[in-house]
Amino acid sequence: xxxxxxxxxxxxxxxxxxxxxxxxxxxxxxxxxxxxxxxxxxxxxxxxxxxxxxxxxxxxxxxxxxxxxxxxxxxxxxxxxxxxxxxxxxxxxxxxxxxxxxxxxxxxxxxxxxxxxxxxxxxxxxxxxxxxxx
Length: 134
Description:
The protein is mostly helical. The protein contains four helices and no strands. The protein has helices at about 40-50, 55-60, 70-80, 95-115. α1 (about 40-50) crosses α2 (about 55-60) and α2 crosses α3. The longest helix is centred in the C-terminal third of the chain and has 21 residues, at about 95-115. The N and C termini lie far apart (about 70 Å).
């Protein structure tokens, strides 16, 4: 019969791509999971606590858990970040990418120096693993 007239078994929570007839929000690629689904709870909470989280932004947009207005705002940021023009067909990489990589490298070096200062070398994490404190 016509679509939507039969009640099937309840949907299991797994990532499903949207079909051509599905209603979607800006940037949505996947079927929206139910509010209690653990991935959704994680990413919505992450986005609330760290609105600049690229991972949370992309997940929430792709799964359509945000309002259409908010999804549109984030989609613009995501596309800009990935070097895609709003009209599509963006070519070339943004010149800021190498600078971002250098900043990440510095953070790693800083973390290593902090570990060195506290006497926690790379091997320290494994020393005494599984033993009881004396």
